[in-house]
Design goal:
This protein is mainly α. The chain is built from 7 helices and no strands. Helix 2 packs parallel to helix 4. The relative contact order is 0.13.
Amino acid sequence: MAECSQVIYVADGWITEAIANQAVEKGEAIDSEFSLILDALMSDAPAKGWAVLKAISQDRRVSAVDDVFGMGPLSSFILHHGMDFRKAIHEFWNMHQGFQEQYKMVVFCDLAEAIISPDNIAGNR
């Protein structure tokens, strides 16, 4: 249960931080505490990082920062762990239209397309 609450805590913090950072005036400090936590999770515990990304993706508030999410942590995860998590990513992509829209903003287009292509999913070769 503690792991689930940590996922929700990081997801909620990241969204709150991203929304607040949109309102930052030029020259003001930008909060990055939860971005750093998420980066560390994606690096050190990719499965937990993926759980946080899914929680962020499904939160209704993320629509205000879909571009930040897609071009930021989602792109980073796809670059570093996309092929390892391709089946989970593909399944989540099929189940959630909001994630499909966020996924369009992933910076690494060729890699992103390869991951969701049914031909590249384990067991479909």
